[in-house]
Design a protein that fits this description.
With about 325 residues, the chain is α/β, with parallel strands linked by helices. It has 12 helices and 12 strands. It has 2 domains: about 160 residues, Rossmann fold; about 130 residues, Rossmann fold (3-Layer(aba) Sandwich), CATH 3.40.50. Helix 2 packs parallel to helix 10 and helix 7 crosses helix 8.
Length: about 325
């Protein structure tokens, strides 16, 4: 029985036991960062809600361990195509490398919802993500204001081919052009996929521009964590203005201690939830938005304890992942 027919059968009054559940595969860029745990929790929330409403749904979560393992993510997508899942929700870790397996899924009649990071293909049902260029511009606006529009800046990039972080970096660099008193010392170095590789890259940059750098921008969780540690080791934490992207417990501690000046924070829990909800609604034959924005917020030491910010920073992981 095809997925839409299953849901029509439910609408006609058949019991959940009489129909095969839909299976939605959720494929993250990686599985270690706190960001992806929140995406997973949001996907599980959607699964529980559909099942509670009598619409049988199984969410399958699988992705590479590290966010630079393109081959592994390609293999995961191809495996789900072979399994003939009902739909795939994909966060492509490379905007180009994942095109072929993603389009293979669509050709096999499996709807594709892209989340978090863009894919260089129009063959998708929907795109659920933060406006990453706007997020980069938000970071730039804060840095310009906090620095008085003067100083020397390092941009530590994430990974080549990661569309989400490349958009953040571009938005940031465009944003600081508004302050001619700011000079970019370096914007072509990449941190790599882990905190450890980011730490090494950050140490190299800080050593190279010792005595010059007054501010830094980092474009994802692991990149920000590596830079925070490098600044601390160099005795520059709180002296060099650090504006980062994404959140985790150590980064929030760094923000509270003012080792980090600000974080641009997404809502990965909502992203995972809406990714699955959008896929299921499409399978039910409902019209869905082609693009769904999950807004980012600027979090600073001054607004850290606001209720809305606390809710954003503390998604209910234990409720949905244990």
């Amino acid at each position: 029985m095809r997925p839409i027919a299953i849901l029509l059968a439910l609408a006609a009054g058949l019991s959940a036991a009489e129909v095969r559940p839909l299976t939605v595969a959720v494929v993250p860029k990686g599985t270690t960062h706190e960001f992806w745990k929140a995406v997973n929790a949001g996907a599980v929330k959607a699964e529980r809600e559909f099942n509670a409403a009598g619409q049988p749904l199984k969410v399958v979560w699988k992705g590479p361990l590290k966010e630079d393992d393109r081959t592994s993510q390609i293999d995961v997508v191809q495996g789900f195509v072979a399994r003939k899942v009902s739909a795939i929700v994909l966060a492509p870790l490379d905007s180009k490398a994942l095109v072929a397996p993603a389009e293979m899924a669509v050709a096999a009649g499996i709807p594709l919802v892209v989340i978090d990071s863009a894919l260089d293909s129009p063959r998708r049902t929907a795109f659920v993500a933060t406006d990453n260029r706007a997020g980069g511009a938000l970071a730039a606006g804060h840095l310009v204001k906090a620095s008085g529009g003067a100083g020397k800046v390092i941009v530590l990039r994430y990974l080549p081919g990661s569309a989400s972080t490349e958009a953040r970096e571009a938005g940031f660099l465009d944003g600081i052009k508004a302050a001619p008193g700011l000079t970019v010392l370096s914007s072509d170095q990449h941190a790599g996929a882990t905190r450890e590789s980011a730490l090494t890259a950050a140490q190299n940059l800080l050593n190279r521009y010792k005595g010059e750098v007054t501010a830094v921008f980092t474009s994802n969780e692991s990149c920000t964590a590596g830079m925070m540690l490098a600044l601390k080791q160099a005795g520059l934490a709180g002296k060099v203005l650090h504006v980062g992207f994404d959140a985790s417990a150590p980064l929030i501690d760094g923000l509270r201690a003012r080792a980090i000046g600000a974080l641009v924070v997404q809502d990965p829990f909502q992203m995972g939830y809406l990714g699955v909800v959008t896929a299921v609604r499409h399978l039910r034959g409902e019209a869905v938005q082609a693009q769904v924005d999950t807004p980012a917020r600027l979090v600073t030491p001054d607004n850290l304890d606001q209720d809305a910010i606390k809710a954003l920073l503390n998604p209910p992981l234990e409720q949905f992942l244990k």
